[in-house]
Prior knowledge:
By secondary structure, the chain is an alpha/beta fold. Helices cover 37% and strands 16% of the residues. The protein has a single domain (8-196), classed as 3-Layer(aba) Sandwich (Rossmann fold). The strands form 2 sheets. A 7-stranded parallel sheet has the order 1-10-9-6-2-3-5, sandwiched between helices. The structure holds 2-phosphoglycolic acid (PGA). 2-phosphoglycolic acid binds at residues 37-39, 132-134.
Amino acid sequence: MEVIIRPDATAATQLTAAIIANQVRAKPSSVIGLATGATMERVYAELVRLHREAGLDFSLVRSFNLDEYEGLSPEDPHSYRHYMNEKLFNHINIDIRNTHLPHGQAPDLKAECQRYEELILACGGIDMQLLGIGRSGHIGFNEPLSALQSRTRDKALTPTTLAQNASYFPTPDAMPKRGITMGVGTILEARNIALLVTGSAKASVIAKAVEGPVTSMISASALQLHPNCQIIVDEDAASELTQQAYYHWIFENEDDWKPYRG
Ligand code: PGA
């Protein structure tokens, strides 16, 4: 695991988008794992800009999102399918048939979760997984106590997550209480992982995930087990990390980060 600290949310977002862009340039048929949420909106805006202004080509890319709300149709404006179409897919040259999310209204949830796992495998697995972290410490909808070897399944959302996302819905009752999510084990099989965290509200949870013990109480802590995982934080989100000087040194000195230093 490497932690990279950038001065502000804009710089952290641009670095994350640049990592995705380099993955797509290096392997145009990359399988990319995608995330939703407020943090990701800025990453997608930057990827759209790179497509328009720098010709970043998504024509062969295939994508798998982490999760979807249970019970919402793809057309529902609160569904993650709708979010992805609006924030990214409608503005780049990806083939929409190559974009995948779990079906929130699948009649047989177990079969749907199995289908999703098999489709990821059939596409050769995920080359690069983009992640955010929730206030509950979740990645995807892997709420506290998610097994670290869990696979795609349906999961009850915690009060913390319900509170975090309630403002997107007209009333708290309108918000689904369950989601379908890739498991922690599914996520850990991605060949590369980039997790972006910005803002002081996430400082405590990212410090626990990165520098605390591996625990199913903070599912993002399982990323400590992954050999190719980058955690990109802005100064605000980094404020509770104890090894900040070392993390700064990594970005300034390691050859892998040279192309990104500008
Ligand atoms: P946020 O969500 O970017 O809206 O904070 C992140 C998450 O819950 O994973």
